[in-house]
Amino acid sequence: MLRVVNLERLKKLYATFSIPQLLTEYKIGDNELIPISVDSDIALKDDEHFTPLWYYDDTEFDSRNADEWVKKDNNGVNLPVPAIVYLPTDSNKEFSKNYNWANANVIDYNSTLKMYSVVVSINDSTKVYSEIPRLQIHFKGEDPREFVKRIKYAILRREYCENIYKWSMYINNVLLDKRSKSISESLPHDAIKRILHLLLKNQKIKKMNTDKINILLRQSINIIWGFGLVKFQKIVEQINNIYQESCLSFRLELLKSISKDHHNTLKIPNFDFEQFIRKPAQSTLMDKQLFIKMREELNKRNLLELPEVYTSLCEANVEITLIKNIQLLLTDFKIYLTLDEFETAQLKNIFETFSLLKNSWIKEIAYKCYAVLVNIKTGWFDISTCKIKNYESSINKLRRLMTLITRMMEERLRLIVLNSTKAYTRLIEQPIIPMKSINDDFTWGNNLNKSPFEECAPPLFSITLSMNENGAFYSINPDKFEMVIVSLLKRMILESHEIPAIHPYVLANLTFLEKPYLTSIGLIEPEIADLQATIENSIRLAIIPIKAYCKEYNIHSHLYNINVESYVKKFFEGNPSLNRIKEEISMQIKMKLNLEKTFPENIIIGLFFINVESLKHLLIRKRIELADLIMKIHASLTTEKIEICCAEYNRMYLKLIEVPTTVEQVFEIREWINDLPNLISDQTEILKRLLKEMDMLDPFLWILEDEQLKLKYSSLIWPYKISLKVKESLENIAIYIEKFEKIQIEDELLLQENVEYLSDIILKLTIENNLSKVNEIAVEVNKNWKLIKDLQLTSQTLNQRQKLFGHTVTPFENVEHLIDEFEPYKILWQSASEFFKLQSAWMQNPLINIKKSTIEPMLNHLLNIVTKCVEQFAEVPGTLSVANEIKTQIEEYVPMVHLLNYILTQGMKQRHWDIFADITGIRIILSPTLTFKKCLALGINDHVEEIKQLSDNASKEYIIEIALNKMMDEWTGVKFQLLPYNDQDIYISTITDTEFQMLDDHILLTRQLSSSSFKGIFEEPLTKWEEDLRLSKDVINEWNEFQKTWLYLKPMFDNPDIKEQLPVENKKLSLVERIWKRIMKITLNKPWVMKTCPDKQLLDQLINGNIQLMKVQKALE
After folding, report:
1. Which of residues 637 and 264 earns the better pLDDT score?
2. Considering Cα of 636, then 640, then 641, then 646, what sign does the dihedral take?
3. Are residues 477 and 463 in contact, defined by beta-carbon separation less than 8 angstroms?
4. What's the sign of the alpha-carbon dihedral 1030, 1031, 1034, 1036?
5. Tally of CB atoms within 10 A around 937
6. Number of domains observed in the structure of the chain
7. How many helices (H) and strands (E) does the chain have?
8. Where is the Dynein heavy chain linker domain (predicted)?
9. Band of the pLDDT at 196, cuts 50, 70, 90?
10. Taking all residues of the chain, what is their mean pLDDT, rounded to a whole number?
11. d(C-alpha 993, C-alpha 967), whole Å
12. H or E element: which one contains 121?
């Protein structure tokens, strides 16, 4: 956490600095920073630099190296690093004169050129600059002050080096005087000897002044010994060169100081800018004491002073060498494996191999070392020692011996791990060698049978190509291979670090604080990292073609997703023609053959053996199912049509053998037989066409079912079978005609007898006047009327049959006359019966079961019918008396019906009957069993006017009651619409204009009802309801005003400045707001308008709140 805080602080600190500003503070101009071209033929000028600034960059200023700045992600792609880069303003020129610092992203580093690549966004586009030196890049994660110091140091270093270079060039070419063109002086021999003597004996010579050096140069001392001739000559030559350059430098400085015009452009370099300290040459002589001392030191360090030590090393080396050919990862597979099988086999081998190393190998080496060294009881190599401090001493030879054996073991372990890794890499890499040139957009092509890659090595993995509704896929996700294969490599390398050292086994008496382990090769070491990268890249290359191969099968996903039944059903829903069906079957069979030809059973692609057999058979089977189902349904549909034809033939046959029951059927059959040849011909044509459709399946080798085959051949027999039956049917028809002609004559005679019988019935009705048997007479009349209607139908049928037989049509007029004569009697007696039934029902049924609206209409209808009957039977005395009697009874019952209507008036309550009892003394108790007969028995028919008056009053009171209840019902579901305000515990309430208008309408209607003289018992509810409505209207008006003002003031007082300026008003607003929250809380729990608003206390609160809000608003203004 502290590190994150520190980084954030540094980030903020670095952001406060500006690179251009810091450069200005360090007096660094653009002429110092602008890059120049590197040209060997460039002309040297005094006022211009001729070497690039980045030559003199000091990497000691770097807080990170290049690899730490430019990192890679998991896919090996460089991550962009934000930086400020010194780039040309004109991006089209290689060396522009105008440069500026710009924001960019560093994307790559060239370790060979030691240059960076950056990308810059310019006008919605990007441009990449390559070969940008480090001095032109300031990473935003580094200290800008150190970066500017780095630039300043490079500028000073360039100035120094360029001056040195120009000075040396000038010395080599300048003429010192008019006599000579160059310097050829050399030191005397004795001076050279003295210089060599001083160089060998004294390293402080460089501190001497010029005078002392001149004195020494004049001295000649013979101190030369121990040098060869060649080496001596080289040293002498170097001394002469230095002497000549020193002379030239001295004279040039003198000339420059004397002459003002000559040599004025030459700058004398600062020779003290950097001093290179040379190590003094050591004497090749060694005295005898030093030699003896070194020999003793060597004896102390020598391990092979005892034969047992040499033997232990040899024995250990033999055991160590035994594992040189061991394979930690399997590389030889006889069969193709799935990824799980491969992983299991490798893990098993890793476990078994490292178990062998951890147990047998380690213990065998430890045992042999122990067996050799156990006999040494004293000295350095006593393995029975129990003093850990002595053992851990740096001069302890036993410790060094154990370390040497450990190093030998570690070297062998590193070697087998590296060899196993290389073999593992070859196992993965070799099969994909032909794929090295492919890229991510590789496409397979149309040839699915043959791989475009040559098989360089046998494949390793077996995968199965399958398909689901989303498309083709492999049994194992190809992206999983890289993870598993690399994880096995890492597992093997990590296991190699778990092998214990031999120390605890040999030195049994010592106790180690931590169990020592052998050190193997690490995952991040270059060799392993390179091999792992090779494996990863190989696997990524290997899965590119198999993914492309899999994509080629996606065009068949439509076939896979086809539901055979749905497809065929939809196909036949379009009523395809015979040719269309034939084309569809041919297409399915052709596509099936194409799948057999284009799909391989299996294919080898690099690392993978791909099994396509199951998918191939699946798609082929679907094509076969489609073709078979189409043929099956076509055969079924054709069979159904043939069955219809056969059913039609069968219907013809059944009709031919049908025994007619009426003469109409006989003549119908005879007429139908005349048209039968045409019907048979039509069916035969249809059958031929259907058989042709059925035969269309023969080229596709479709085998019909037994029932279908049987139906096919039986359909061909029907026409012949029917033709034989026609002859027989014609002979039977003649017999049937003769039979039914006799029946016709008998029916005509029977009709005349029935007419005579009914005429006698009518004569009896003319003299019938017994009203006591009205119901029995009505039943008898209905029975005879039905008989008359039957005679009418029979007469019509007989007339039609007469036409069929060719007889003279005899009109049965007496039947029609009989109907006209009998119908008035039927109407009279039915009306009389109905009147008596209604009268009984109205008198005896409970009043609650009688419908008032049907009483008078029914009675008036009966009266009209009976009145008409009186007119019709004016000349029939007996029947006329009955009609007059019924009419008289109906007219006499009319007042009773009016009285019954008064009693059944809606709104007649028990209170009205109580009033009636007070007036007349007749007490009526409303109950479910009360009847009109009981009321008459109490004598209410003597008080018709009183009941009529009470009925009128009850009707008008009922209107008021209905109106009041309707208003209350309309307000039952009306609620306030509550909307939350700014996620606070406050709501804004609204009521629609329609509901507000309804409130006004109801107030007006209630006022009208209250002014009615019939309000009576409803006076108190009407008054209470009117008060509630008016109070609700006042509350809603105050509510809306309160809400409007509060919404206006609330945002203003949310401003802290307003609160400070108007503290009293802010306090008032807070108080009002608390009251408002309390009101809204109640409203939220009880949102119904007519349950919340009729509240005088609520009205008072809203009025007081509005007063306070007005005061706050005035103060604000």
Report:
1. 637
2. positive
3. no
4. negative
5. 10
6. 5
7. 37, 11
8. 816-1117
9. low
10. 77
11. 17
12. strand 115-122
| 815 closest CA partner among 869, 879, 748 | 748
Residue 818 domain-assigned? yes
Give the integer Cα–Cα distance in Å for 526 and 533. Answer: 10
Domain extent at residue 146: 17-167
850: amino acid identity, one letter? I
Give residue-wise pLDDT tens across range 385-427. 777 776 766 567 777 888 888 888 889 889 999 999 999 999 9
Beta bridge pairs of residue 167 = none
Q: State phi, psi for 538 to the nearest 5 degrees.
A: -65, -45
Query: Do 90 and 152 share a structural domain?
Result: yes
Amino acid 855 reads I
Does residue 1031 sit in helix, strand or coil? helix
Distance CA 312, CA 320 (A): 12
- Measure Cα distances from 846 to 259, 516, 738, 894 in Å: 152, 112, 66, 20
- Look at the block and give the residue holding tokens 């009693």: 903
For residues 895-921, b (16+ Cβ closer than 10 Å) or e, as one string? ebbebbebbbbebbeeebbeebeeebe
The pTM of this model reads 0.44
Please state, in angstroms and rounded to a whole number, the distance separating the CA atoms of residues 478 and 606.
13
156 and 22 in a common domain? yes
Both tokens of 681, joined, read 């011909």
Sign of CA dihedral 1075, 1081, 1084, 1089: negative
In order, the DSSP letters of 631-642 are HHHHHHHHHHHH
List % helix, strand, coil for the chain (3-state, nearest 5): 65, 5, 25
pLDDT class of 581 with cuts at 50, 70, 90: confident
CB 1030 within 8 A of CB 1093: no
In a domain, 35, yes or no: yes
> Which residue type sits at 295?
R
Judge whether 869 lies within some domain: yes
The full 3-state SS of 1032-1076, as one line of letters, equals HHHHHHHHHHHHHHHHHHHHHHCCHHHHHHCHHHHHHHHHHHHHH
Length in residues, the chain: 1117
Tell whether 67 and 148 lie within a shared domain: yes
Domain boundary among 887, 904, 921: 904
Let me know: does 313 contact 405? Beta carbons within 8 Å: yes
DSSP code for 699: G
Kindly report, residue by residue over 114-150, the tens digit of the pLDDT: 899 999 987 777 888 888 999 899 998 889 999 999 9
Q: What is the pLDDT averaged over residues 633-647? A: 85
Q: State which H helix or E strand residue 105 sits in.
A: strand 99-110
